[in-house]
Amino acid sequence: MSEYLLSENRDGVLVLTLNRPEKKNAINNAMWVALREAFSAAAADPTVRCVLLRGAGEHFCAGVDLASFAETPPGEEHPFESAARAVVEFDKPLVAAVQGAAVGGGATVLFHADIVYVGESLRLRLPFASLGLVPEWGSSYMLQANIGAQRAAELFYTAEWVDADKALDYGIAAAVVPDADLFGHALAKAAEIARWPVNSLREIKRSLRLHHLPAIDAAIAAEQAGMQRQAGSPENIEAITAFMERRPPDFSKL
Ligand code: COA
Fold first, then answer.
1. Ligand 1 pocket check: which of 18, 20, 22, 23 to mutate, most ligand atoms within 8 Å of Cβ?
2. Domains of the chain
3. What is the pLDDT of residues 203-229, one digit of tens each?
4. Region class of 93: left (phi > 0), else alpha (psi between -120 and 50), else beta
5. pLDDT tens digits for 240-249?
6. If you measure from the C-alpha of residue 194 to the centroid of ligand 1, how many angstroms do you get, rounded to a whole number?
7. What angle do CA 155, 72, 130 make, to 5 degrees?
8. What's the CA dihedral at 84, 14, 179, 150 to 10 degrees?
9. 18: which of 100, 110, 182, 237 lies 20 to 30 Å off by Cα?
10. Which residue's CA is the closest to the ligand 1 atom numbered 7?
11. Helix axes 139-147, 149-158, angle to 10 degrees
12. Is beta strand 101-103 parallel, antiparallel or unpaired with respect to 175-177?
């Protein structure tokens, strides 16, 4: 495993902890590789019956490391792609415990979790429009499937912040609990799941995901095409430069 992704099997619940708290658990390339390997290994490991995903420290995840795009040579697939596929294809229950910031990929991963528990401090955002980018991880489909077309469109177009109560109201989260109780609550629920035979859990997940998977594949293909058009565009460069320079982006001249 990697220093960026901690892994611990607790009686059949594999607890995966995104571990880069000084960067709000923003996912760099090494962490994407670790995530891909962890989900592939968890699928194949008969002692894992459920995965619980969480972030170290006060925040779940600030999404793709915005500085990491430069690490991937042009023409080479960004390691995000294969990690995202491993999560989409993961065939056992996936529970998430989410507090603080859940932004970009730190939000869209949640739409593939079977159950999401959030802390009261949740601040979730789909920042793609503000970054001059397009949604990823099949979220352009999954968010609509989870919360409805208009609510999804509003969150994507405005890039507004979603708090814990709204996440619960919209059905992005199954429950809100105080931050201090979040991990314990999510772990207890994951343990309830992990009591049951893994083959049964797998069959249930297969049935639940059956209708979604082809649509997710189509969404990811469309998103990748859009991302190729937008990544490195003047508006994308302005957005990332502004983030690094800690100033608001200025799209007025573009
Ligand atoms: N990529 C790279 N670095 C990131 C990051 C990201 N996605 N998100 C946060 N960080 C870094 C910051 O640069 C900062 O690093 P520094 O201390 O070396 O300067 C550190 O993490 C702390 O972040 P900061 O912005 O100071 O914390 P905050 O509490 O003010 O805000 C967020 C937290 C999550 C709201 C804010 O960091 C943010 O909006 N991040 C960008 C998220 C994003 O757009 N992700 C989508 C990628 S598609």
1. 23
2. 1-179+198-254 (3.90.226.10)
3. 999 999 999 999 999 999 999 999 999
4. beta
5. 999 999 999 9
6. 34
7. 20
8. 30
9. 237
10. 65
11. 130
12. unpaired
What whole-number distance in Å separates Cα of residue 95 and Cα of residue 189? 9
Centre of ligand 1 from the C-alpha of residue 184, in Å: 27
Kindly state the tokens that stand for 8: 């611990």
Best residue among 18, 20, 23, 24 to mutate for probing ligand 1's pocket (most ligand atoms within 8 Å of CB) is 24
pLDDT at 72: 78
Q: Among all chains, which residue has been given the structure tokens 């999804």?
A: 152
CB neighbour list of residue 88: distance below 8 Å, 6 or more residues apart: 112, 137, 138, 213, 216, 220
Residues in the chain: 254
Place of tokens 């893994």: 198
Tell me, what amino acid is at 31?
A: M
Single pTM value for the model? 0.96
User: Are the beta carbons of 1 and 42 closer than 8 angstroms?
Assistant: no
- The letter for the amino acid at 217 is D
